[in-house]
Design brief:
Blueprint: E1 7-12, H1 20-26, E2 30-36, H2 40-50, E3 55-56, H3 59-63, E4 70-73, H4 80-89, E5 93-96, H5 104-117, E6 121-123, H6 131-141, E7 148-156, H7 176-186, E8 190-198, H8 203-209, E9 215-222, E10 228-234, E11 243-250, E12 253-256, E13 265-269, E14 278-281, H9 302-306, H10 318-321, H11 323-336, H12 344-362, E15 368-369
Parallel strand pairs: 1-2, 1-4, 2-3, 4-5, 5-6, 7-10
Antiparallel strand pairs: 7-11, 8-9, 8-15, 9-10, 11-12, 12-13, 13-14
Helix pairs in contact: 4-5, 5-12, 7-12
Amino acid sequence: MPSRRKINIALVGLGFGAEFIPIYQRHPHARVHAICQRSRKKLDAIGDAFGVERRYDDYKALLMDPEIDAVHINTGIPDHAWMSLAALKAGKHVACTVPMATSIEDCKKIVDAVKKSKLRYMMMETVVYAREYLYLKELHEKGRLGKLQFLQASHQQDMDGWPDYWPGLPPMWYATHCVGPVLGLAGQPAEYVSCFGSGTIRPELAKIHGSPFAVETAHIKIANSDLTARIIRSLFDTARQYRESIDVYGSKRSFEWTLIEHQKHVLHTAKKAEHEIPELVEVPDYAKRLPKGIRDFTTKGVYDMEGTTHLSFTQGAGHGGSHPHLAHEFISALVEEREPFPNAVQSANWTATGLCAHQSALKGGAIVKLPPWSLG
């Protein structure tokens, strides 16, 4: 019988990770036990703002705290794999922001560690809890899209000026925001990919990782399915407003993400007069799926809920209102003693899809198979 006690969680990395503190504080089955940040000044400022008494500026010391049940890691990309592995070794459940790792080998180590420890791991992929994805999932489950025929997604963003681990990063190394929704909606893992690189970034960026491409586009063969998906990813030297998008083409209805942020999306319905096929749609809010105490976080950020305008947070209620859904899924999985979505194997497959895609781009589009252990 699953326990209904509160889960003691520690937040590690307090950039946009601080956005999750009040969400967990208001969740009926969670308790913010500790926070961790290397900068003592920032650690204390956030601890004071949210009333969190237990504070660590050393991650290894935090992992020695026997009262912590789970850690939620929100640190820089290079730290995700080793921090996840250290937490699992210390007996803690893990939620980690994307991507799972930057190598297939590290993805495999995390999957193996989860199997060995019988702990839970969840990659906190925002897009599969964004209101657009939840809307599409609902349409699909109710049969309103008909048969799925094709999926595509893009994630385009200018990363100049971001922290020092970003410059020159191969676009597909950080592809889960577009891989996750297409594989999640299809309900199957990626089997193999073919990817092409296009254009070139500045030489000083290209030499860092040996990746010259401005844009990488991949086709994904989805396992156990007649479906394929296309994903588009860019990070540098490509003019485009920030975009995370999902387009879904079905036999009855198709959905296309707006081309400009904050404009309405388009739903196409088959067998209508040509001018009646497209309609602009407002995607609904799915706060009703959440405990009452955290519903407001789907539309409001920390600024609105706490008045902490003197602190520096970057996301607010961004990411499609996904933050409270992510926290709720992770805590619920622990309380109910079940696998979260996405679990460790799914997270590895989504991450490895991008890593394999970049390998393919370097090989001129050659097919690269996903590792068999990632297929579930």
